[in-house]
Amino acid sequence: MIKELEYHQACDLADALKLAGEFGSRKRILAGGTDVVVRLKEGTVDESVIVDVSHVAELRAIREEAGIVHVGACVTHADIARSDSVRLHGCALAMAAERVGGPQIRNMGTIGGNVANASPAGDTIPALAVLDATIVLASVRGTRTVPILDFFTGPGRSVLCSDELVTEVLFPATGARELTRFRKLGSRQAMTIATASVAVYFRLDGRHHITQARIAFGSVAPTVVRAPKTEELFRRLPGTPSWDAVRGAAQMAWKEVAPIDDLRASALYRKEVVVGLLAQTACEALEISLP
């Protein structure tokens, strides 16, 4: 049985911030509802107040401004997946949004909820990590920005204060020589929580050498993690590398993840998986044929 809760619907951002400050830790934010409604049915919501921000127009827009892509916290995964701006300037994020749940979840779930839940299996988070995204947090006290990986402090934990809302996700628009991709592995391709996921970012020079690399993994550590040693090996690859060279560089990922055993997979399986998942994702980005 769903317990009785106090409900408030914010009409605009100022109202949402006022409500967040007024109710603090007693409130649970409702945006898409894909997480909150399930928890309400399970009786695992401890808060006594629901603050509904789903109708706040300021949180529902995607725009590009001065080379920065702005994605409002209440933009749905479906809208992200079909956004021309995101597909062109943040392909990995569009790919990740396409893989969130099934159509119903994608049409309701929001990027702000995916980030605020702070799950190490959150599909959009590895993509945001390689896009060098920042999270915009706002309250009646003001606004601050936090680099994506600094936002998370552990599974389900973050630096979000009780009176703050996630209002936007920002990332630099990628250009013609910047490549990003995302993949995840799970037992069911459409609906699954990721057993492991990977996102990559490569900047190429005129000779197709990788001059900058960012690689992030999900579901293989307490939070989404970057892989700096693996990134360095990718920067050392020759221009237009072979599958064997890419696979060799990807082997370093085995040492840079720290998964656990759970119901979805063993730690050892996840370690093995990330190597192949990274190699395949990198080859897709670099347009290298798989064997």
Put the structure in a nutshell.
The chain has 13 helices and 14 strands. The chain has 291 residues and is α+β, with helices and mostly antiparallel strands. The termini are far apart.
Helices, strands, pairings?
Blueprint lengths: L5 E4 L3 H11 L3 E4 L5 H7 L6 E4 L9 E4 L2 E5 L4 H5 L2 H6 L1 H8 L4 H6 L2 H6 L7 H7 L3 E6 L2 E6 H4 E3 L2 E2 L6 E8 L5 E8 L10 E9 L5 E9 L6 E2 L1 H8 L7 H8 L2 H4 L10 H20 L5
Parallel strand pairs: 1-3, 2-3
Antiparallel strand pairs: 4-5, 5-10, 6-7, 6-10, 8-9, 11-12, 12-13, 13-14
Give a verbal description of the structure.
This protein has 291 residues and is an alpha+beta fold. It is 34% helix and 25% strand. It is built from 13 helices and 14 strands. The strands form four sheets. It has a five-stranded antiparallel sheet. A four-stranded antiparallel sheet has the order 11-12-13-14, sandwiched between helices. Strands 1-3-2 form a three-stranded parallel sheet, covered by helices on one side. Strand 2, helix 2 and strand 3 form a beta-alpha-beta unit. Helix 5 packs antiparallel against helix 8 and helix 11 runs antiparallel to helix 13. The longest helix is centred in the C-terminal third of the chain and has 20 residues. It is globular, with a radius of gyration of 19 Å.
